[in-house]
Amino acid sequence: MPELADVAKTTRAWACYDCGKCTATCPIARVGGDYSPRRHVLATNLRDRKEIVSNGTLFSCLTCSLCDRRCPAEVGYTQLIQKLRELSHREGVEPDCPHGGALQSVMRMMATGGTQQNRMDWLSDDLKTEPKQGTLFYWTGCAMYYDAFFPDFQVTTLNGTRAAVRLLNKLGQTPVVSPDERCCGHDLLWNGDRQSFESLARHNVKLVADSGAETLVVSCAECLRTWKLDYQPFFEGKPPRIMHITEFLAEHVPELKFKTDGQRRVTFQDPCRLGRHLGIYDAPRQMLAAMPGVELAEMRRSGPAALCCAGGTWSNCDRFAKQLQVGRLREARATGAEVLATACPKCQVHFRCAMKDPNLGGEIEIELRDVAELVADALAE
Q1: Domains of the chain by range and CATH?
Q2: What is the pLDDT of residue 217?
Q3: How many CB atoms lie within 10 A of CB 198?
Q4: Residue 116 near residue 315, CB atoms below 8 Å
């Protein structure tokens, strides 16, 4: 199997010590089930295509990268999973996606083109944006779809999107917000559908390039990872400077005037894509620290050790993922915080879903807010 030999080489699977630290570290393996990262490394090294495609656990991985961080042999397990899922997709094996696969269907419709989206209704009259040309492009992601798909969870991820535009306006920026933006393709890529991902990548890279933007600001951690890492082969010429909204705000803290009233204890959920995938830990915390009256209370596992929200690619919605979400919300509550701040809309979706469990009552309920929301609310009039 020459293809699997290449995968073993590029991901360093060949270097595996067979020590088991990946499986001992894996959040899914720790809460139950028969999932084992080491099993996929072994199957790759043995060129066992049948085991990889048919063992039924390939899509259980959260791709949270905790195992990458702790592997003594520096095996790139997260990259390995991405490549093995591409192989699986070519064999016709895909994850059992929740919600009837509706979100994946929308993404694939966007990838094929020819569909007319209504992406702009969330913009209120007080928000200043440009539809085509500008020096700064604000990437909205799929927040408007999440809010439409999950009304039963009271999902309000668009509040963070509106807050980001409001903050950019406060800083003298009129960002490009395009009606022609499409899904970044993150979930399709991580579920093995590279063809649809590449179609979206080519469209989106051209869209931003044609806008003339020198800076691309993103609120979604998964979109940010996609733009910074996975879109690199698609850029022609110099790419824009690509930043998370908290990174952009952290550079402009002296220009933001905050109210001095209020006292709140806040804890922060590090998204896997923002943290372990991209190494961005400080900027969200700098923004929380910049607000008068906000006390940051870290969870027991935070920063590089933070626990995943357990649902990054809409392919992990099961009882094990729910255990992780409930455990993480208990950690947040244990800090005494009133608010759980997030820097990725998907974290909000999954935590709101977990909080709807009728058996847990108010045990895990906590106010969820995007960091940009908190900053916008704290500004002086």
Answers
A1: 2-90 (no CATH), 99-250 (1.20.1050), 257-378 (3.40.50.1860)
A2: 98
A3: 18
A4: no
Q: Are 233 and 151 in contact (CB under 8 A)?
A: no
Amino acid occupying residue 318: D
* Host H or E run for residue 200: helix 194-211
Weakest mean pLDDT among 89-98, 130-139, 209-218, 275-284 = 89-98
The residue type found at 147 is: D
Q: For 80-233, where are the E strands, in sequence order?
A: 136-139, 215-218
Please report, for residues 8, 140, 249, 315, 342, the alpha-carbon distance to residue 285 in angstroms, rounded to integers and kept in the order given.
Answer: 37, 22, 11, 30, 11
Give the pTM: 0.95
Q: Would you give the DSSP letter of residue 239?
A: P
Average pLDDT for residues 139-159, to the nearest whole number? 91
pLDDT of residue 316: 73
Whether pLDDT at 40 is above 90: yes
Q: State the CB neighbour count (10 A cutoff) for residue 269.
A: 28
Q: Is the pLDDT of residue 2 over 70?
A: no
Tokens coding 60: 């259980």
pLDDT value, residue 34: 81
Which residue in 321, 328, 301, 349 sits closest to 61, CA to CA? 321
